[in-house]
Amino acid sequence: MLIRIHIHIQDDTSPPLVDIARPLGGIYVLDREIVMLPLDLTIILGKITIVAEAIDELTSVDRVEFFVDNNQYAIDEEYPFEWLWNVTSIGRHTLHTVAYDQVGNHDYAEKILWILSV
Ligand SMILES: [Ca+2]
């Protein structure tokens, strides 16, 4: 008797996709969008909820990490991937998010934010 066992292991070599879904271009005051701006210009007064959209086709998204000016502030391991930033700063900052899939592939998205929060 011949028994054939076929094991197929899908190697996930493709990175997830991540994008910053919030904030978009606009003026946000205390986590509310007051004005949408047609340009990719984002001005934030007070706290803001950052939302990252992340998907992975083969495995799944393990986590999304949130950085401001290359300092890590938060990690979210569950959808929706978001972080409430209680920001106190004035000036131009770079927000970036990194999404990882289950095997460590990753993708990166970044956005310039103008912060007016004291
Ligand atoms: Ca993947």
Give your account of this protein's structure.
The protein is an all-beta fold. 0% of the residues lie in helices and 60% in strands. It has strands spanning 17-22, 26-29, 32-36, 42-45, 48-55, 61-68, 71-76, 81-85, 89-101, 106-117. The strands form 2 sheets. The protein has a 7-stranded mixed beta sheet, with no helix packed on it. Strand 6 (61-68) and strand 7 form a beta hairpin.
Give short descriptive properties of this protein.
single chain; 3-stranded antiparallel β-sheet; 7-stranded mixed β-sheet; 118 residues; binds calcium ion
Determine the mean pLDDT.
93
User: Which fold name corresponds to the CATH topology?
Assistant: Immunoglobulin-like
Morphology: elongated
Strand content: over 45%
As for the number of domains, it is 1
Structural class: mainly beta
- Number of alpha- plus pi-helical segments: 0
**Roughly how much helix do the residues carry, as a percent range?**
under 10%
Strand order of the largest sheet: 3-2-4-10-9-6-7
Radius of gyration: 18 Å
Spans of 5+ residues with little confidence (pLDDT < 50)?
A: none
